[in-house]
From TrEMBL:
GO terms for cellular component: membrane. GO terms for biological process: protein ubiquitination. The keyword Membrane applies. Residues 90-184 form the E3 Ubiquitin ligase MUL1-like domain. This is RING-type E3 ubiquitin transferase. It holds the Pfam family GIDE. Keywords: Membrane, Metal-binding, Transferase, Transmembrane, Transmembrane helix, Ubl conjugation pathway, Zinc, Zinc-finger. It is found in: Membrane. It is a multi-pass membrane protein. It comes from the Bacteria. PROSITE patterns: EF_HAND_1 (PS00018). Its EC number is 2.3.2.27.
Length: 306
């Protein structure tokens, strides 16, 4: 019996299960394809900034990874020093057709580290980031604490009961990053802007005080020119309350945007390589969507025709 004949005579539950899987593959391919299209466009369209002159908001940076002062970040499996890691330990269980890999342990680093360029340094919070390491190491071993080996038997590499995977970002390695850039400290930092907005809201709630202090033409209202005087006075008060703030060293941070339209990406690959990788995955997902849609269409039309 050929496939077309099977479609026409298959049990209803079997047919609709296959059709549902085809539709699901199409939907999944479209969804993931558009996500990768969005990431690719963001990487290509957002200009690269220097840390010292970067605007507050969604920013693209390029530099190198470095550790912050304090205890080092150590990869749990290999024991190597790194700035970020992701790992998993799997155990092979069962036999024959029931053989499968079971995840015993996995984890991802959320420790802060630095991106350094020629103008300064930015604290990277990797929580929520989509990280693309330069490579992922995989090895096998006879017990759970097996460490990776640069040399060894083929049995050790392929026949172990336990499988280990580990991805790292290493100190000194190039780093591409795009995410939410914020500056705290310094007279121009975002913390002073927040305090200024808060003080202005407080003053706006006290209309009588505003009129008494800033109504120069005595019309009972605050005009545009008088409002500029209000802002200047509020700014002076913020600075006066924090006399040491103007001379403080600003701290730059890059964090998750929590906005699906503005992905948070960290990559040890150069921007051009990252774009090519996203392009390949984009094509792959759209091919999956096309194949799933074509199969679903063929299934339904053949069934109805029969």
């Amino acid at each position: 019996m050929d496939f077309s004949a099977w479609i026409r005579h298959a049990e209803t539950d079997d047919f609709w299960l296959l059709a549902a899987l085809a539709v699901a593959a199409c939907g999944f391919g479209l969804f993931r394809g558009f996500i990768h299209l969005l990431r690719k466009r963001m990487v290509e369209d957002v200009p690269t900034s220097k840390i010292r002159s970067a605007a507050q908001g969604y920013v693209e940076l390029e530099g190198r990874c470095e550790l912050m002062d304090g205890p080092p970040i150590i990869a749990p499996l290999s024991g190597l020093h790194c700035t970020w890691y992701q790992y998993a330990i799997h155990e092979r269980r069962g036999s024959g057709k029931n053989r499968r890999w079971v995840t015993l342990e996995s984890g991802t680093s959320d420790d802060l580290f630095l991106l350094v360029d020629s103008t300064g340094e930015c604290v990277i919070d990797p929580d929520g980031a989509r990280v693309t390491p330069r490579q992922r190491q995989k090895w096998y071993g006879p017990n759970r604490d097996s460490r990776p080996r640069t040399t060894g038997s083929r049995w050790f590499l392929l026949g172990g009961r336990f499988r280990f995977t580990e991805s790292l970002l290493k100190p000194g390695e190039p780093l591409y990053a795009i995410g939410l850039f914020e500056t705290t400290g310094g007279a121009g930092g975002s913390d002073t802007q927040t305090m200024l907005k808060s003080l202005l809201r407080e003053w706006k709630a006290d209309t009588q005080m505003l009129v008494e202090r800033f109504d120069r033409n005595n019309d009972g209202e605050i005009c545009l020119a008088e409002w500029e005087a209000v802002r200047a006075a509020a700014w002076a008060e913020v600075v006066a309350q924090h006399t040491g703030l103007q001379n403080a060293t600003p701290v730059h941070t890059l964090t998750d945007t929590h906005d699906a339209r503005r992905p948070y990406l960290l990559s040890a690959l150069p921007q051009s390589d990252l774009v090519r990788r996203l392009q390949r995955r984009l094509f792959g997902y759209f091919i999956l969507a096309l194949a799933g849609g074509a199969l679903a269409s063929f299934l339904i039309t053949t069934r109805l025709a029969g």
